[in-house]
């Protein structure tokens, strides 16, 4: 019905009031769906539903406005009677009463439009000059020796920042560079405070901050003087201006942007409690590592000490191996002898069968058999003598035999063998290994080799 009404010649038929209001609303919505209008707030009322209704007027006319609850909740500054404002919204007809009305989507103070234009122009120019490039931004120090703050002494932001720094890192000195942060000429004072910190080099990082406010309140941080001072500062700069939703040009040029002054303080200050926990974790890991290394070393010492205390076991194993080899040699010799005897017996049988000079051959065979037996027994005796000689050498090299001759082995408390008297110190405890046991002693006097025979 509405589309038919819009396309017909409105003067060709009679319309109802509802049809007229619908047609007018459609025409206005098509032509004025998103416009800015300036004026003064008049007859401001707030309904129980949370919606605002008022008239926007100038010297010659007025228009009804509706600001719904969900839009009003986004306003930075609440509406007041008599405020000069600029509103953005769509124009339509309130059908129930046939009244001309603006449904508002955005509200700002009168003159903010020019400020936004200045903001965008300056932002574009400074960005083209490279002041916002990530390549020029500095890294914040992990452990600053001193922290600087550029803000007003009367600002609540200063109290928040100092409180946060004292809580997180009370050991770090704080230096405040006071400056007005609002009002005419405040941007020059802010720039001078930043450059003062830059020239003095008293701090390792600088916080430039103030609390929240309107666009006009924060405007000093959008001025070129402030932005250029931050860009020229060789100290790492953290901006903490306004609330999380506020963005100034100082945020773009700063090395790090914090959503609030308190967040800026947290960014530049190491958390002492977290550092202590980290140190405790490192200490715990170091203790575990040392305990493992100690246990490994103790096991190794026990193994070496066990080998030193029982050298006879190795000698017994070697003697057992020698007996095995001797038995094997004896068995091999007997086997070889039996084999030779068998071959001789075969030859005897062959000779007896052929009956040549049997007696002479038998005597030769007997002589050869006797010679072979003598050679085999001689070889066995020679091998046994070699085995006995090796056994004597092993016994002579045994530490226990050395101890039996009156010698002793001196060891430190860690099991190390002492070879040089100069390696000892007075009072050091030692263990002396003797042939029939061991004793613990303590160094009472030291003498050189030459002094022993004086």
UniProtKB/TrEMBL annotation:
Membrane-spanning segments: none
Domain of life: Bacteria
EC number: 3.1.11.6
Keywords: Cytoplasm, Exonuclease, Hydrolase, Nuclease
Every OB-fold nucleic acid binding domain range: 15-107
Principal subcellular localisation of the protein: cytoplasm
Reactions mediated catalytically: Exonucleolytic cleavage in either 5'- to 3'- or 3'- to 5'-direction to yield nucleoside 5'-phosphates
Subcellular location: Cytoplasm
A GO molecular-function annotation: nucleic acid binding
Function according to Swiss-Prot or TrEMBL: Bidirectionally degrades single-stranded DNA into large acid-insoluble oligonucleotides, which are then degraded further into small acid-soluble oligonucleotides.
UniProt subunit comment: Heterooligomer composed of large and small subunits.
UniProt name for this protein: Exodeoxyribonuclease 7 large subunit
Name of the gene encoding the protein in the UniProt record: xseA
């Amino acid at each position: 019905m509405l589309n038919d009404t819009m396309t017909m010649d409105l003067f060709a038929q009679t319309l109802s009031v509802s049809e007229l209001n619908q047609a007018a609303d459609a025409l206005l919505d098509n032509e004025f769906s998103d416009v800015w209008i300036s004026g003064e707030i008049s007859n401001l009322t707030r309904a129980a539903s949370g919606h605002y209704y008022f008239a926007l007027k100038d010297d010659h006319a007025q228009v009804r406005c509706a600001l719904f609850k969900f839009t009003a909740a986004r306003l930075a500054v609440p509406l007041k009677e008599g405020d000069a404002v600029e509103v953005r919204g769509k124009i339509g007809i309130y059908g129930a009463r046939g009244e001309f009305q603006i449904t508002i989507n955005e509200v700002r103070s009168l003159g903010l439009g020019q400020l936004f234009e200045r903001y965008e122009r300056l932002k574009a120019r400074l960005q083209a000059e490279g002041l916002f490039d990530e390549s020029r931004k500095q890294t914040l120090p992990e452990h600053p020796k001193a922290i600087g703050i550029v803000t007003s002494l009367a600002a609540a932001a200063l109290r928040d920042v100092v409180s946060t720094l004292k809580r997180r890192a009370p050991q770090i000195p704080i230096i405040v560079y006071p400056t007005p942060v609002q009002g005419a000429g405040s941007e020059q004072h802010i720039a001078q405070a930043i450059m003062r910190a830059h020239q003095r080099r008293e701090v390792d990082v600088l916080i430039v901050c103030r609390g929240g406010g309107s666009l006009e309140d924060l405007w000093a941080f959008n001025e070129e003087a402030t932005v250029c001072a931050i860009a020229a500062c060789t100290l790492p700069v953290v901006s903490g201006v306004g609330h999380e939703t506020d963005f100034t040009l100082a945020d773009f040029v700063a090395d790090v942007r914090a959503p609030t002054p308190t967040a800026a303080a947290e960014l530049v200050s190491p958390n002492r409690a977290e550092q202590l926990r980290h140190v405790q974790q490192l200490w715990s890991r170091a203790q575990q590592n040392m305990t493992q290394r100690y246990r490994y070393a103790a096991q190794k010492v026990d193994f070496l000490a066990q080998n030193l205390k029982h050298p006879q076991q190795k000698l017994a194993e070697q003697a057992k191996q020698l007996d095995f080899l001797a038995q094997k040699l004896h068995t091999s010799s007997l086997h070889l002898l039996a084999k030779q005897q068998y071959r001789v017996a075969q030859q005897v049988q062959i000779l007896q069968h052929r009956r040549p000079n049997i007696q002479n051959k038998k005597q030769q065979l007997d002589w050869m058999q006797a010679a072979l037996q003598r050679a085999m027994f001689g070889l066995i005796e020679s091998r046994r003598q070699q085995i006995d000689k090796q056994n004597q050498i092993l016994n002579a090299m045994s530490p226990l035999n050395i101890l039996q001759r009156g010698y002793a082995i001196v060891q430190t408390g860690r099991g190390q063998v002492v070879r040089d008297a100069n390696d000892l110190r007075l009072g050091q405890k030692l263990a002396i290994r003797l042939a029939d046991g061991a004793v613990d002693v303590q160094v009472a006097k030291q003498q050189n080799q030459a002094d022993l025979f004086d």
